[in-house]
């Protein structure tokens, strides 16, 4: 008998018919002889509405009360599904985060799970009861409800799978798996059968928003096999797993992009030791996340140009910080360009193969696309290019790395 965790996202529980559809899927797993825990999101759109209401009550709502409000969406769906399962003749009950309990560090609005005591839930499951668990919820050291950040029910599901020692964690969503790139842009994008945790982490953080990043980190740490699949169609999805489980490794597994980048350039910065520290220190203190960085070699050895990228929402703060420090830093001008996109090719194969970066540069050159900034990590190469070339670059790279569907 296998133990499985099934997680359904907001669109999968978006209305009553869809919740009944979920009940049928759960019944199939129970009929197949499995012990099942189900983790649910709120109905799609509900959490957004709850957040909006809090913000209409106050400019800065009390984070504890914010959590009290936004955690309610999941309480509705778990109760409804438990009723639906009972209607199908199954034993089922709902569990709020505090009832299990799922304990967090109590940082309201973006809490981290610290421990899960599965004893009561496990006993109920072993006795044949389906456990229907509210995603997104935990209880903090202050004994109050805390939520795990937007998209947090993915993390609830993976954490629960780890704590229960589940054989599988199936994440049902409105896409049917992880693709080599965004299928809305590249029609030849292919669904991946398997992808490593590390590759998935890179894909998650650069724009393929299928799983909350933290859920992938958690899966990697506890070696939870996560399957991403459609709740509307019966087809195999994508398994996120250990590298050892992947027999035929591609050099490049996926190509991601992020439009949420602004290029900031400081010109004629006096070139002396400590200059980078004096620029990026204050930015870090102001919680401005800096991503790609290049420092140009100065012509006369006295001045240098510095270019880096920040997210659109951090631009205003970055400008303020740098302008305030201008007298100390002594740069000539600050300029920014939001019309850029970061394109990244990702693959664990890069560790052992040369020439992957060269192929990216060559391909973009042949399309006449200028590369503005480059950054690399062990399994990723990213370039910053003009935003208007996004589609062209993705399609050309997808073909060049042999990823196109037949
Ligand atoms: N309902 C929460 C949200 O919309 C949690 C989740 O769905 O993962 O962010
Ligand atoms: Mg989600």
Question: How many structural units, i.e. domains?
Answer: 3
Query: In angstroms, what is the radius of gyration?
Result: 24 Å
CATH class of the largest domain: Alpha Beta
Strand order of the largest sheet: 3-6-2-1-9-11-12-10
The name of the CATH topology of the largest domain is: Carbamate kinase
CATH superfamily placement of the largest domain: Acetylglutamate kinase-like
Counting DSSP H or I runs of 4 or more residues, the number of helices is: 13
Q: Unreliable runs, pLDDT <50, ≥5 residues?
A: none
Question: Structural class of the helices, strands and pairings?
Answer: alpha/beta
If classified by CATH, what would the architecture of the largest domain be? 3-Layer(aba) Sandwich
Let me know the largest β-sheet: 8 strands, mixed
Entry summary:
With 406 residues, the chain is of the alpha/beta class. The protein has 13 helices and 20 strands.
Describe this structure in words.
Keywords: Amino-acid biosynthesis, ATP-binding, Kinase, Lysine biosynthesis, Nucleotide-binding, Transferase. Helix 1 packs across helix 4, helix 7 (197-205) packs antiparallel against helix 8 (213-222) and helix 12 (356-366) packs across helix 13 (390-400). It is built from 13 helices and 20 strands. It has three domains: 3-173, Acetylglutamate kinase-like (Carbamate kinase); 262-337, 2-Layer Sandwich (Alpha-Beta Plaits), CATH 3.30.70; 340-401, VC0802-like (2-Layer Sandwich), CATH 3.30.2130. The model has no long low-confidence stretch (mean pLDDT 94). The chain has helices spanning 16-31, 46-57, 63-70, 72-87, 119-126, 153-164, 197-205, 213-222, 275-285, 315-324, 326-329, 356-366, 390-400, and strands at 3-8, 35-40, 92-95, 102-104, 113-116, 130-134, 137-139, 145-147, 168-173, 194-196, 226-230, 238-241, 254-258, 262-270, 290-295, 303-310, 333-337, 340-346, 373-377, 380-386. Bound molecules: aspartic acid and magnesium ion. Magnesium ion (MG) is lined by residues 9, 151, 154. Magnesium ion (MG) binds next to loops.
């Amino acid at each position: 008998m296998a133990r499985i965790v099934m997680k359904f996202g907001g669109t999968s529980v978006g209305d009553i018919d869809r919740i009944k559809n979920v009940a049928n899927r759960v019944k199939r797993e129970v009929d197949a002889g499995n012990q099942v825990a189900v983790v649910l999101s709120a109905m799609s759109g509900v959490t957004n509405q709850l957040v909006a209401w809090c913000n209409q009550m106050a400019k800065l709502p009390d984070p504890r009360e914010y959590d009290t409000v936004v955690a309610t969406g999941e309480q509705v769906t778990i109760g409804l599904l438990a009723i639906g399962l009972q209607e199908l003749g199954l034993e089922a009950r709902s569990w709020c985060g505090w009832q299990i309990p799922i304990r967090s560090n109590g940082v309201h609005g973006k809490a981290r799970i610290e421990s899960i005591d599965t004893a009561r839930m496990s006993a109920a499951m072993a006795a044949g009861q389906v456990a229907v668990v509210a995603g997104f919820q935990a209880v903090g050291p202050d004994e109050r409800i805390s939520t795990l950040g937007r998209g947090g029910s993915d993390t609830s599901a993976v954490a629960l799978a780890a704590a229960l020692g589940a054989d599988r964690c199936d994440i049902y969503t409105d896409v049917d798996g992880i693709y080599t790139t965004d299928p809305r842009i590249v029609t030849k994008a292919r669904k991946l059968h398997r992808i490593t945790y590390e590759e998935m982490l890179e894909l998650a953080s650069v724009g393929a928003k299928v799983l909350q990043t933290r859920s992938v980190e958690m899966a990697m740490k506890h070696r939870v096999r996560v399957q991403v699949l459609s709740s509307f169609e019966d087809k195999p999805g994508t398994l996120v797993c250990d590298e050892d489980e992947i027999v035929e490794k591609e050099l490049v597994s996926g190509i991601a992009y992020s439009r949420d980048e602004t290029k900031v350039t400081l010109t004629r910065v006096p070139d002396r030791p400590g200059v980078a520290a004096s620029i990026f220190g204050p930015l870090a203190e102001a919680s401005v996340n800096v991503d790609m960085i290049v420092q140009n070699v100065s012509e006369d050895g006295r001045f240098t140009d510095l270019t880096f990228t920040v997210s659109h929402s951090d631009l205003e703060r970055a400008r303020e910080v740098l302008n305030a420090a201008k007298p100390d830093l002594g740069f000539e001008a600050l300029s920014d360009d939001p019309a850029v996109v970061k394109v990244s090719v990702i693959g664990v194969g890069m560790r052992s193969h040369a020439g992957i970066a060269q192929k990216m540069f060559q391909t973009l050159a042949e399309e006449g696309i200028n590369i503005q900034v480059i950054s690399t990590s062990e399994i990723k190469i990213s370039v910053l290019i003009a935003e208007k070339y996004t589609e062209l670059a993705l399609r050309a790279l997808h073909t060049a790395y042999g990823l196109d569907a037949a």
